[in-house]
Amino acid sequence: MDHFLTQESSQLLLHVDGGGGTGKSYLINLLSAHLQAAAVGRGTPVWRAAPTGVAGNQISGTTLHSLLHLPINKDFQPLSPTDMAQLQKKLKDIKYLIIDEKSMLGLRQLSWIDDRLREAFPSRNEEFFGSLNILLVGDFFQLPPVLQKPLYYDKEVQGVEIKGRNAYRRFDKTVFLKVVQRQRGDDQKAFRTALGELRLLQLSVESWKLLSGRVQAKLDDQEVARFANALRVYATKDRVNEYNHYHLDRLSRPVIQVKAKNVGLGAAAAPDDKAGNLAKQIPMCISARLMLTSNLWQPVGLCNGARGTVYDIGWAPGANPVQDPPCVIMMEFDKYSGPVFLTTPDGRKIVPILPVDRDFLIGSTLCTRTQFPLIVCYAITVHKSQSITEDVIVTDLSSRDFQTGLSYVAVSRVKTLQGLMLDAPFDRSHLFYESPPEGMKMKMRDERHRRRQVLTRNPYTTDHGSA
User: The domain 13-179: what is its CATH number?
Assistant: First the structure.
């Protein structure tokens, strides 16, 4: 706060580190509120963003892609004059950009952020990030970015990743959050210890026994029943799809397969992640749990990762429901704050979700897929779960992590040990390494370096001594 209150001219490039549940999102929202209050009459001084829609929504922010018009599956390009004017208007009063879930940010993406901000502030384009103050918040011991080298990567890099590394190395201050807020209380002390060991792949025998006590086979029927509708969090898409199919079948309702409309040679065979994140087909029925896969209206909660329940399915007048796809899915979302299409007698807020079009390339062929931006979500991948908190979850630790951080992120989504159930017994050797894998070693080297950056005193002082 004092950096802002003293109108400090030097650029602030700061890390805020904390493991799962240390109150990072709370801190971001609190700091943002104080900055906004201090800037009364001077516009909005802070913008919050994250690599994913779920994470952005948790901090009442946006995705980095939508804020800065960053590319998806293509090379970085300068903005058109119209788009640049809109971005500059949006950033006119911004002094601080807070980026959450930094573990999911890659060197290439950080390079793009640097380039875009230099472009947006042409009078300061010789300085990193256009001289904007940046706070990188998160925990590198959680999940790394998809198909990018993480910020802490210390092996040889090439091209734009070199620029990203140069930008990353400009961050010269670090604050570590140490107190776990999510798993609070003396009764959760052993669980907090287990999470700390999971984070470093150093699970002790005592913690292994503690977590093994939450295996389904060791729980009585009444305890297992508490998890009947709990969110499942699994490492692989195959496991997620298997459970979602099972749970839809349990609803005992007629299920339709909503097939996408595809245009272009090879478009029908394109996987979801190559077709604008739209599924080839979606099984659904009344009362099914679905998740948005696109940012439709992020400020009110209709963002990638938002979960809800199907209230109704509608077809266009004259359509044949047996042959034709529906034209609208009426949904009740768990966290929605916008206007509603209708409110049910019992107070449920219903909003319509329409099909969207996504253009993509197969080779040099331009293709289009039209589909509802939805997937079934009784189970989700660990990647989609990062940044959320649940009262109860079910997960599986029986397979060795194919990526460091998977087990830690899955288990740390829950508030208490009693809110966790494990599908099957697991081997301690999967989560204890005498010698850490290389990815873990890089994280540890980065943290050791940044321990030397820790602020031991407030470098920005005001007369009233605020922090």
Answer: 3.40.50
